[in-house]
Amino acid sequence: MPDGTGELVEHLFRQMSGRMTSHLARLLGSSRLDLAEEIAQETILRALQTWPYHGVPENPPAWLFRTARNLALDQLRHERIADHKQQDLRPRDSTPAPDANLDEFRDDELRMILMCCHPEIPRESSVALSLKTVGGFSVREIARAFLAEESAIAQRLVRAKRQIRDRGLTLDLPRGEELQSRLDAVLETLYFIFNEGYAAHEGEDLIRRDLCVEALRLARLIAASSLASPKVHALAALLALESARLPARVDALGDLVLLENQDHSLWDQQLIALGFHHFSVSISGEELSEYHVQAAIAAEHIRGGLSGTMDWPAILHHYGQLLEMSGSPVVALNRAVAVAKVHGAEYALAAIEPLLADPALREYYLLLAARGHFLLELDRREEAAACFRAALERRCSEPERRLLRKKLKECE
Amino acid sequence: MPQYILLLYENRPGVSNLSPEEMQKATEKYMAWAKMPFTKGAQRLAPDHGRVLRPNSGKAKVTDGPYGETKEALGGYYLIEASSYDEAVQRAQAHPHIEYGGVIEIRQVFGT
Questions:
Q1: 0.90 surpassed by complex ipTM
Q2: Checking CA distances to B5, which of A56, A181, A398, B43 falls within 20 to 30 Å?
Q3: CB atoms < 10 A from the CB of A50, how many?
């Protein structure tokens, strides 16, 4: 009869699936990623079929690793019997003991994510492959999270794996400058995954929040490794601080709650502490990345929210910095919001004027929404209403749409 | 109190495509059922074919068991207590195995 409470650490199977896949891929070679995934899946299935009868083992991760390794060795033995000539199917590494220090498995995960973000693999495939192999997400879950077709995600995975085989991409750690650029690609991928999960959507599927959790987990994994750098800590800080506000971002009716109206008691204190910790480590060096500045802005939002007075001049300063670094029109738009707070809506309107002609923003509902917002503040109601109406014609999610309609009402 | 054996036959295709997250949910449901006070024993059977002995001109003929890849294999059993067959059935109905496409066979232990 099973003993123990039967409760498992949240996301244990998903995370262990990623770890086992990474570990097995290293054991079997990167060209046999499919096999590694199959064995990881079979291992999780064995847990489902065994634990309900005999109870959760004392050390679930060790049980899973032992089972996975045994399945992998069985498989290799079968293959050797089937084909005597294939001697190179031996495990490549000296194989660690099943309950060896988890550090080694973290190393496997790092190597895997670095391979997933190889420049030979297109970004969208990198994202899908990272979530599938390191993240332990299923194809269906990835498709749901990205509001994409399952077949499209499956295609991306097939393409990525083909690249790995054809180009002979390995799990070896790149060196020197290549390591740096690869790490940058990893951070970009994590940033992308996080933002995808952060964007509000109708029905607010929990799987999208899981994307944020996973991106933060991986950022912390890298921050705790020998690959850590101020930039890595800055990204970890940014993701932790943004995650902290997630529970307050949508109200009970599924409507978006703007930062200034959020219920601070819903903010996650642990994540705030974690974010500020990474932030303080990130500013210890000379390096100043966009993640640093974004984290600084997120930190100001938190501080301002908790203290009741937002330091808009500081936020405006950071957005100015960020705009200089990125030149992104979206950043310019965000900066305009800070301009409105510091100098007034008139200046903000002038600040976004050049953006209206930017082809990259033409279809962006937020530009029109922001403009409407500034106009409304200046009591130019008819012009404001026209902006909100135009924004409603652009692509945006249902919660965003409701917010726009509310604004449109205020113009009457 | 009468005792009953619940034989759980597995439905591999029904669970093998679940995501790890979904498998964890399933495991938690199975565990929650298994720790109810009426369960008195449980064993998981090894996932192999098993062996069957049949008489063959007075001697035993040994073959691989009935559970190939495609058949629903007997995965394990629980021993439970229930006041009647009806109650035993009720308790088995609450088992998540059915939800995941598995089959449960109930037999009363003789003399209990």
A1: yes
A2: A56
A3: 20
| Class of domain B3-108 (CATH, top level) | alpha beta
Kindly identify which residue of chain A lies nearest to residue B38, measuring between CA atoms: A1
Does A14 touch chain B if contact means CB atoms closer than 8 Å? yes
Give the gap in angstroms from C-alpha B26 to the nearest C-alpha of chain A.
7
Contact A190, A182 (CB under 8 A): no
pLDDT value of position A77:
87
Distance CA A288, CA A390 (A): 38
Give the integer Cα–Cα distance in Å for A295 and A301.
10
CB A335 within 8 A of CB A323: yes
Work out how many CB contacts closer than 8 A connect A with B.
91
- Partner residues linked to B79 by β-bridges: B5, B41
**What's the confidence (pLDDT) of residue A3?**
52
d(CA B82, CA B92): 10
Which A residues, 127 through 146, put their C-beta within 8 Å of a C-beta on chain B? 136-138, 140-141
CB A75, CB A35: distance < 8 Å: yes
Rounded average pLDDT over B17-44: 94
- Residue A144: what pLDDT? 86
Q: Taking CB atoms and an 8 Å cutoff, what residues of chain A touch B69?
A: none
On whether any CB of chain B is under 8 Å from the CB of A195, the answer is no
pLDDT tens for A236-294 read 999 999 999 988 887 777 777 777 788 888 899 999 999 999 999 999 888 899 999 99
Are A53 and B44 in contact (CB < 8 Å)?
yes
- pLDDT per position as a tens digit, A61-83: 999 999 999 999 988 888 877 76
Decide if A16 contacts A44 (C-beta within 8 A). Answer: yes
CB contact under 8 Å between B21 and A52, yes or no, is no
Q: Does A291 touch chain B (CB under 8 A)?
A: no
Best CA proximity match to B34, nearest among A309, A27, A6: A6
Contact in structure between B111 and B25 (CB atoms under 8 Å) = no
Annotated domain spans of chain B: 3-108
Whether B6 has its CB under 8 Å from any CB of chain A: the answer is: no
